[in-house]
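Why do we bother with a discrete structure alphabet at all? Because it lets us treat a fold like text: something you can write down, compare, and reason about line by line. To make this less abstract, here is a complete entry for Universal stress protein. Read it the way you would read a sentence in a foreign language you are learning: slowly, and without expecting to understand everything at once.
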Amino acid sequence: MVSQVLVAMDGSAVAEQALRYALDVHSAADVTVLTVVGEPSAMFGEATAIALADDPGESMLEHARPVLERAQAIAAEYDAEIATEVDTGHPARVILNRSGEFDTVVVGSHGGTLADRVFVGNVARKVVDQSPVPVTVVR
């Protein structure tokens, strides 16, 4: 039985579908939504802005706020409680570092912009290939 589910969300529609899937299929489980900010990009924009902020922790939360608010809104539609977490770094690495704490991971099949996928790589693929726990990829 699955009791702990990690859902990775990046603000994309497919990430929202991943959360909906987790809430549908694992309705009795504790669901944690993880969003990763400050990921590497071609221009180092978000990562640099967070690192140079007066309060990097607050800046990280501010960048993540829209994703976390959307996750809470989706959970409310299901009358479900979720935990939310924010971390910085490369999304695949962050998700993989946390995945062992959960029974399963749910990710969207793709997310972000085309440029993000070119520079960052395919997060879902890396998570599927390297996760120590089962991974569901939602399209």
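What the structure line is telling us, in plain words: Strands lie at 4-8, 30-37, 82-88, 104-108, 135-138. The domain at 4-138 is CATH 3.40.50.620 (Rossmann fold).
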